[in-house]
Amino acid sequence: MEQVAAYLDWNDSIKALNTAYESGLFVLIIGPKGTGKTSLVRDFAKSKNVNLESINFSLRTRESHLIGTKTLNEGTVSFDEGLLTRSMREGSMLYLDEINAAEADVLLRLDEALDDRRQITLKESTGEVVKAREDWFVVATINPLTHSGTKELPPQLLSRFPVRIRLEYPPEGTELEIVRRHVSGQESEIIQAIKLANTLRQAAAVEELFYSPSLRETIAFGKLLEEGMCAREAAMFVFGNVYTQWGSVEYQKVSDIITSMFGN
Q: Whole-model pTM?
């Protein structure tokens, strides 16, 4: 089985998480996709030797995913508890990924559980009040509002996460170290790919391009090189071709940048 590379804590995020954990304060991690938010949370949960319950929010996420739902089995009605309820009972670490993609009714139920009482009423079942264990810890992530499907979190829900960690793309040298944890060899080409990724990210930040490549893409570039693909071809597959969905002008713009960096 492939070993998962440990998270490279380049901006002391784990230290901040640990302090919040010991203080009983919930944490919000803010940053664009592909900056390692999920890897950070998983690594932190592993370091604490606690179970991690996680959910990735979307427009399809319903209250029942969090709270639970009634089921009928051979004439017997039972209640299958959802992830939120289960996490509160067990005191497992709860990871709410892309929380600002959730619908308003889902956020309301979350807000009920995350306030100072840290309890929730199972109105869908017996009306039992479930109170979280003392060691219950919650980490949420949000993408910037420029990302599709995201919306502004209500102020009262934001206040439930008083510790906020900003996680941006790392400096080029740090990104190289991250990629090197996954692949080996071809360092000069990987350095060029990281420069390319940052050029595209900067263009996307000022809305000159529609897409900003993530750390996953620089890692994928390195893996294609490991399998013997030439650098320019790997750059087109990983960084260039995705821009086709925004039309030939967008694609040609990025293709020209790749050619200038990797040749024909």
A: 0.87
